[in-house]
Specification:
The protein is α/β, with parallel strands linked by helices. Helix content is 28%, strand content 23%. The chain has a nine-stranded mixed β-sheet, sandwiched between helices. Strands 1-2-3-7-8-9-10-11 form an eight-stranded parallel beta barrel, surrounded by five helices. Helix 3 runs parallel beside helix 4 and helix 15 packs across helix 19.
Length: 714
C-alpha cells in the first residue's frame, strides 16, 4: 500500500492533533517533513576562526530568503554558548548568542534547529589542553590519529569510548534546556580521515577485551574476515549507534523533540553510523554531483519511511586543481552559485525532501541584503515555490513500480578481485536511469532494510550486482517471486553471504535457473551480446561464467576477438507464480557509463511485457529531461526536470541552462476516476484536457529547469 507523507508521519507519531486544525501553525514535528531552513555553519566565518556572528543580522537574512527555520550551531570546533560540559568554548564568546538567536527566531515565527556535533573532530592539534591526549583515537603504537577538515588546521580524532562521550552527553543536556524545535546531530563519528582505522586507545582495548576476551585486532598484518566482522559490528552497533540510541532516549525522557542526524555517508564503505536510521526520526543527505544522483539518494532516504532533508546548493567547493592541499576548500562565505542552484532545489522539491540552504556565510559579509545577489534571488525563488505549494506537496507520495535493491552489504564487504568498490554504485544508478528513461517509476531501497512487506510494495525488484545477501534475504526474494513477483538480477547477485563470504553457487540458483561456474568474472575486450532474433549489442567486457540450470537462454555472449561463443548471457525463468530475468554481466552499470541508446531500447523490450500495462506515464526519452511522479488520492503530479546545462568537464563549474520546448507526454488516469483540471504548477497555466481512453495527453510549452504537470481528479 502506498502511504502519503502525512500518513507516514502519523504512523511515526510526528503529527500533533492540534496541527491539523484549520489555520493552526505547523508543529515542529509536522514541520520537519517540509522545511526551508537556513544553516548557520560554524566551521568557518562568521564563527571560526574569529567569532563575528551577529544574531540580528543572521535572522534578518533568514527572513529575507523566506526561510521558515534556522539551524544554530551549539558547537563545532568550539561551543557557541556558555557551556559547562567541558567542551571548549570559543575564546571570543561574549554573552549567549544561542539564546539571543532563539529569541529572535521566535519573534520572527521561525522554527529552530540545534546543530550538535557528536564526536566531529574538534581537538586542535596545537592546543595545550591536557585532556585531549586521553580523548583521542590511538593507533597500535599509541600515537593519536589526526584529521583535516576545512583546511584551517588539523584535529585529533576523538574516540567514543573515551571521556569525550560524557562531554557530548553533557553538551546535549545543556542544549535541551534551550527551547529548540529539533535536535540535529552531526555524527556519531569515530574518526574522519582515519574512520576505518581501528582504535587502540586504552578505553577501546578494555571494552574489546571485556566483550571478546582478546585485544583489538591489528590491521597491519593479514586480518581475518571474522576479526573484521567482529570489530566492525562492535564499533558500529555497540559503540556508535548505541550512543546515538542512548542520546535519543535521553531526549525522549527529558524534552521530547524530533531528532535527525547526518547520514550522508549511508552508502560509504563501513561507515559506523550508516545503519542508525531506525534510531531517529529522519536524516540528511547533504549533496550529490548530479541531479539524478540527488533524486536517487532522496528516494532512497524516503524508502526508509523516515523524514529526509538535503542541502540546496553544494558547499560551493570549486575544483581547486591547482592547490597542493585539497583540504583547503575555499570560498564558503561567498555567494557564487548560478542557475544550477535552481535545479538542485527543484530536484529536492520533486523528491519531497526538506530544503536546507548552506548557508548563512554566503551572505553574512556582503554589503547588501541577499536579494541583491543572484544566488540569494534563486534561494528565495526555491523557498517561495515550496511555501506556495506546501499544502499540496505534503500530501504526495512516490508511485514506484520497481524497487531497486541497493547493496549496502556489498559496498561494505565484497572484495572480489575484479570488484571496483568506488564504481559499484554505477549498477544501481544505471538501473534507475534505464527505468526513468523508459518511463517506469523506481524507488531504491537498502538490502539491510529488506522485509517481505517492503518487497510487496513493488511490482518488480531489480537487484543490480547485489553480491552480498544473507540466507534470510535470499529466502525473502525467493518467496517474493514464488508469490507472483518479478525479479531482474545482474552479475554476481547472491553469490556471497551478507559478509562477503563466497558461496559455492548463487544463493538464488533455483530462482535464476543459472548455475555459477566461477567465483570471479572474466574480463575480455570486444564482447558482444547476441539476443535471440536481434542485432548484436556491445556487451559488458566483464561477464559471469554460468550454465543453464532450468532457465531459458534469450541471449549469449560472443567473444569477437577470438571468434568464440562464451555461453549464455541472459536467462528467462519462471519460478512459482513469478518471473525472473538473470543477466550475467553488469549491463546496468554499462548504461550508467555509456548511456547507449541500444541498451535503453533493449531493456525496454525486456521490461515492457512485465511493466507496460501498469505504467503511470509516458514521456519519450529526451536527453537531460528526467520525470518523477508523485501522487495523492486526488492529485497526480508529474515533475519534469530539465538538466540541460552547459557543463562539459569540471563537476563543480557553474552552469546555465537552456529551455526545452514542447515536451509531449501522457498521464494515465486512474481507473474509475476522471480528470477535473490540468495545470502547470510552476507557470500556473491551465492546460487543455485532450484525453485518450485511460490516458491524458499533455504538451508542456516550455520547461526551463523544472515544471510539473498537475492533474486533479474527480
Amino acid at each position: 500500500m502506498n502511504l502519503t507523507r502525512r500518513q507516514l508521519l502519523e504512523q511515526a507519531g510526528f503529527l500533533l492533533v492540534a496541527s491539523q486544525l484549520q489555520g493552526a501553525p505547523a508543529s515542529a514535528a509536522e514541520w520537519i517533513g517540509s522545511t526551508r531552513i537556513l544553516i548557520a555553519e560554524a566551521y568557518n566565518p562568521p564563527f571560526y576562526p574569529s567569532l563575528d556572528y551577529e544574531p540580528e543580522k543572521a535572522v534578518a537574512i533568514a527572513r529575507e530568503l523566506n526561510a521558515d527555520g534556522f539551524r544554530f550551531p551549539a558547537a563545532s570546533y568550539y561551543a557557541y554558548f556558555p557551556t559547562k560540559s567541558g567542551y571548549p568554548v570559543h575564546p571570543e564568546l561574549k554573552g549567549d548568542p544561542m539564546r539571543a538567536t532563539l529569541d529572535l527566531c521566535h519573534q520572527a515565527g521561525l522554527k529552530t534547529v540545534a546543530y550538535v556535533p557528536m564526536n566531529h573532530p574538534f581537538m586542535d592539534v596545537t592546543s595545550q589542553d591536557p585532556r585531549y591526549a586521553g580523548w583521542s583515537k590511538k593507533d597500535a603504537g599509541g600515537a593519536p590519529m589526526n584529521t583535516g577538515h576545512y583546511g584551517y588546521t588539523e584535529y585529533h580524532e576523538g574516540c567514543l569510548n573515551s571521556p569525550v562521550r560524557e562531554v557530548i552527553r553533557s553538551l546535549v543536556r545543556e542544549v535541551l534546556a534551550y527551547d529548540f524545535d529539533v535536535m540535529y546531530f552531526d555524527g556519531p563519528y569515530q574518526g574522519m580521515q582515519n574512520a576505518k582505522n581501528f582504535c587502540h586507545c586504552k578505553y577501546c582495548e578494555e571494552a574489546y577485551q571485556k566483550k571478546f576476551g582478546k585485544p583489538v585486532p591489528l590491521q597491519s598484518g593479514k586480518i581475518s574476515r571474522q576479526d573484521e566482522i567482529e570489530y566492525t559490528n562492535w564499533m558500529a552497533q555497540d559503540v556508535a549507534i548505541a550512543f546515538l540510541r542512548e542520546i535519543r532516549q535521553m531526549i525522549r525522557t527529558t524534552r521530547d523533540v524530533p531528532v535527525l542526524f547526518n547520514d550522508t555517508s549511508l552508502l560509504s564503505r563501513r561507515e559506523w553510523r550508516s545503519r542508525a536510521v531506525p534510531v531517529v526520526d529522519g536524516f540528511m543527505f547533504e549533496a550529490a554531483e548530479t541531479p539524478e544522483e540527488k533524486l536517487f539518494n532522496l528516494q532512497l532516504g524516503r524508502s526508509t519511511n523516515k523524514v529526509i532533508w538535503t542541502y540546496v546548493g553544494s558547499h560551493t567547493e570549486y575544483n581547486r586543481e591547482h592547490l597542493k592541499d585539497d583540504k583547503v576548500r575555499g570560498w564558503f562565505s561567498y555567494p557564487v552559485e548560478s542557475q544550477e542552484l535552481l535545479l538542485d532545489g527543484a530536484t529536492a522539491t520533486a523528491a519531497g525532501a526538506g530544503l536546507v540552504y548552506w548557508g548563512l556565510p554566503r551572505f553574512f559579509y556582503q554589503p547588501k541584503g541577499p536579494l541583491a545577489y543572484e544566488s540569494g534571488q534563486y534561494v528565495k525563488q526555491i523557498f517561495d515555490f515550496q511555501a506556495k505549494h506546501d499544502s499540496l506537496l505534503r500530501t504526495l507520495a512516490p508511485q514506484p513500480q520497481v524497487g531497486i535493491l541497493v547493496g549496502g552489504q556489498t559496498i561494505d564487504w565484497y572484495a572480489g578481485k575484479h570488484f571496483v568498490s568506488k564504481a559499484y554504485d554505477n549498477g544501481f544508478h544505471g538501473a534507475y536511469k534505464l527505468l526513468k528513461a523508459n518511463s517506469y517509476e523506481a524507488e531504491p531501497f537498502l538490502d539491510w532494510q529488506m522485509t517481505r512487506g517492503l518487497l510487496a510494495r513493488y511490482q518488480m525488484i531489480w537487484a543490480p550486482n547485489a553480491v552480498c545477501l544473507s540466507d534470510q534475504q535470499c529466502e525473502m526474494l525467493r518467496q517474493y517471486v514464488r508469490g507472483g513477483g518479478l525479479l531482474l538480477a545482474t552479475h554476481f547477485t547472491s553469490a556471497a553471504d551478507e559478509y562477503g563470504r563466497m558461496r559455492k553457487n548463487f544463493g538464488l540458483i533455483d530462482v535464476f535457473g543459472a548455475d555459477l561456474l566461477e567465483q570471479e568474472p572474466v574480463e575480455i575486450p570486444d564482447l558482444y551480446l547476441q539476443p535471440d532474433g536481434g542485432e548484436e549489442i556491445p556487451q559488458d567486457p566483464q561477464v559471469v561464467r554460468f550454465r543453464v540450470a532450468g532457465g531459458i537462454p534469450i541471449a549469449g555472449t560472443f567473444d569477437r576477438g577470438h571468434r568464440v561463443k562464451m555461453g549464455p548471457a541472459i536467462l528467462r525463468n519462471d519460478f512459482g507464480s513469478g518471473h525472473v530475468l538473470y543477466i550475467g554481466s553488469n549491463l546496468d552499470a554499462v548504461y550508467e557509463e555509456t548511456r547507449m541508446r541500444v541498451l535503453r531500447t533493449y531493456f525496454e523490450g525486456l521490461l515492457s511485457p512485465w511493466l507496460a500495462a501498469k505504467r503511470r506515464y509516458k514521456l519519450p526519452y529526451l536527453a537531460g529531461v528526467m520525470p518523477h511522479l508523485m501522487a495523492s488520492q486526488d492529485t497526480v503530479l508529474l515533475h519534469v526536470l530539465a538538466d540541460t546545462g552547459d557543463k562539459n568537464k569540471h563537476l563543480r563549474v557553474r552552469e546555465e541552462y537552456l529551455p526545452v520546448a514542447d515536451v509531449k507526454l501522457q498521464l494515465r488516469v486512474p481507473e474509475g476516476r476522471s480528470v477535473r483540471s490540468v495545470s502547470l504548477l510552476r507557470s500556473g497555466a491551465s492546460l487543455p484536457m485532450a484525453a485518450q481512453t485511460g490516458w491524458l495527453d499533455v504538451t508542456i510549452p516550455r520547461v526551463w529547469i523544472h515544471e510539473a504537470v498537475r492533474a486533479d481528479l474527480a
